[in-house]
Design a protein that fits this description.
The protein has 111 residues and is α+β, with helices and mostly antiparallel strands. It has one domain (10-92). It has helices spanning 58-66, 71-86; strands at residues 10-20, 23-32, 35-46, 49-55, 91-92. Strand 2 and strand 3 (35-46) form a beta hairpin. The longest helix has 16 residues, at 71-86. The protein is elongated and about 60 Å long.
């Protein structure tokens, strides 16, 4: 059994990661059919390997329905978002903060 191809018109972007132990809270957006829509997700480390569960807000679901997607198509889109993240095809836009320089006494210096 082969997996279905991912939609070519779907691009996924992660702009926030909040790691808390074995769980990572993710937020971002996806471009689909020339629309930019937000999503949230929870990534979990488990015994069977990592898993991701993406969710869409009511606002995003409404936008997708206006694009003509039914519940089955929306579920397939959520699965495609999750696959893009798990398969390394999402664009990571998270900015990592640079550690602040400290003087000899451990006091942070202004940047």
């Amino acid at each position: 059994m082969t997996r279905p191809d991912l939609p070519e018109e779907l691009e996924v972007y992660i702009d926030s990661l909040d790691e808390q132990g074995r769980v990572t809270y993710v937020s971002g957006y996806f471009d689909y059919r020339k629309n930019r829509l937000k999503f949230g997700a929870i990534g979990m480390e488990g015994y069977g390997g990592p898993n991701i569960s993406a969710t869409l807000s009511e606002e995003t679901l409404t936008e997708l329905r206006l694009l003509g997607l039914d519940d089955i198509a929306i579920d397939e889109l959520i699965t495609a978002i999750q696959r893009k993240i798990m398969e390394g095809q999402a664009h990571i836009l998270v900015q990592h903060e640079q550690p602040k320089a400290q003087d000899d006494q451990g006091i942070n210096k202004p940047s």
